[in-house]
Amino acid sequence: MTNSLKNRITILCVGLVLLTTLVSLFSFLWSTSKFQEEKVNQDIKVAQSVYKQYLKSKESLLLTAAKVLTSDFGFKQAVATRDAGTISSVLFNHSQRIDAELMLLIDLSGQLISANTNEGHFEHDLQPLTKELLNTPEQSSFAILNKELYQVILLPVKAPRTVAYSLVGFKIDDSVASELKSLTGMDVSFIGRADDLVISSLIKRPAQFDPVHYFNTVTTSRFFGEYLVYRNLDIELTSLVTHPIIILLSADLTQGYSDFEKLLFTLLILAILTMFVGVITSSLLANNLTTPLSQLAVIARQFAQGNYSFEFKGEKQSTEIATLAEAFSSMGNDINQREQQINFQARHDSLTGFYNRSAMLEVLDDELKDNVEYTLVAIDIKGLRHINDKLGPRIGDDCLKAVACRIAEFSDELGGFHARIGGDEFLTVFPTAAARELKSGVVGLIAQLQSCYTIQKLKISLRFSAGILQYPSQGTMSDDLMRRVLIAVDSAANKNESIHYYQIGEDEAHLDRLIMLDELKQAISDDDGQLFMTYQPKLHIKTQKIDKVESLIRWQRKDGSWVNPEVFIDLAEQSGLIVELTAWVVNTVVAQVADWQLKGINLQAAINVSAQDIAFPGFHSALVRTLKKYKVDPKLITIELTERDMIENEEKGIKALENLKEIGVKISLDDYGVGQTSLGRLKMLPIDELKLDKCFILKLDESQKDQFIVQSSITLGHQLGFSVVAEGVETLGSLNLLKDMQCDHAQGYYLSRPLKAELLEEWLNDYYAKN
Description:
By secondary structure, this protein is an alpha+beta fold. 52% of the residues lie in helices and 21% in strands.
């Protein structure tokens, strides 16, 4: 595995060793190369200095010999008298004494007088040479005479005036170059470019030998390629302008290359050995580190499988590994404890210690035996929310724990088990026969639960609803059992019963309600015409004009069946879908009012809302956005609430209604007279309209008591500043009585049933045509 820690450690260590070795190698090679280069440059400088000293000594010797010669009285007398024999003899003897290859006597015109060698060789060369040498008195120069190189010096012969010139010189040949090479350690070449003169210390020369080209281009094959053999330095010598002479110093680099390669190979061998040692050492280090880590990885996998007991095998481990192993051991114990705690919390209610709902479903599948009858009792605590609101949540929690304790006292003795399946709902399951024999069955349980509770020195009486289901006669699957027993307890709560026994068929009715709820969601989402609004006109009794309508929702399912509004609205409230449904109603009604305005029909539309709508934070802002969207005056919209809605959400409801009134929306209190609204509360409500319940209006012309109630309600409403609407007007007699009682608006089947918008428009045309 290339990504294993062992391989990574090995690669890291080897990489570091390799990097260090390479850096050291290149650094050493670079410094060696620089040292070799500096050494060569230094050697060339030394050679240059030696060459200068050598030539300087030759020049000094020439000057001394020339002065001795020109100062000799006999020689000067011979020159003055032109005694050729004496001059020739003196020149020869003097050249022998100083080993000078050239010793000449030249007249003032530059013509040769006498020489220590054959005079004919110099006849055509002396005149320009003499002329240039006179410009540098007592200094030597290099000159080519008879295709040979000489270092010469020219001195005048005075007797007492200058009568001739003495030219003394040493011959420069290959032996001189070799002598200089022996002194400097470098090849020396004298080159006269104008005369094709080449004098060199190089022994083995190519057939066509050009020192400059040769020493600057010759290469040698080395380990890393082809390299130049020589490092060169050109030096110009003092010579004739027309015949320049240079000396070429050439340092041989082959020995340096050879030494460098030996050093390189030595370093490479050391690097390879270092790498080898590094690989072995890092492998051992990685193995010592990863072996215990592999054991810890195995232990971690055992932890993942729930096995928290392990034994770490390893000797002479490092302190860090030992600490890590100890930490693993502590971690295993801690995880085991927390897992047990989490498992318990995942299956149990934290407040009561009972099973939670999901765990109870598993227990029902595991514990219930087919050959034993069990009773399942779902228990709902009535009014627990009011206890929380009035006495605080701590009292409410203590009530739940006290109820759970009594359930456990009853059921544990029977071998039962129990769960908290909701905020204030419990489920207990026990063998039916044992409960009947020992505890008087469910009746005994309810009686035990209804006994007074002492909670924090408070005497509290609780009321309960219980749903009963029998196993296995009324179900065997845990999901079915849970659903059916909850249906039973809901039925007990809805019917205000203490105990309700599940009846065959209630589950199907529950499923039908779920299907209906799903279809209602789809109808709201699709807006495909299943849901539509109808509008029942309200007659302004004094003006006999229709200026208001009540918006009423209707639902015709896709199969053509009608659903009672009370049924699906109640279903929507129970499921929390009422907010979406009301939003659809508001949008539809406001859009319709806007459409009527375009047609010249000014009607104030009332919309029925629930307590959940008023409590919903987004209701107010959504209504404002909708009014702005369709450009409808808020005064054309009335919000109708029942007394029950106002009572259950009094504080929050009053605040919400005040906010609605601020934007101009009208507020109507529906079903007045059948609720529990006190006169004190009525005067606090921010309403504009009282709507008398139809139970007082349906037989108004027949019941004197109804007339007293209606008359007093109308009078009270007017005195409080409210307009009054009577709904349920079925007869002309009732309408006339309402007129006499000065009721503001009437609504009912005597005028019209609720109509769709287009039918209402036709009805309005007919109404105004008749009136």
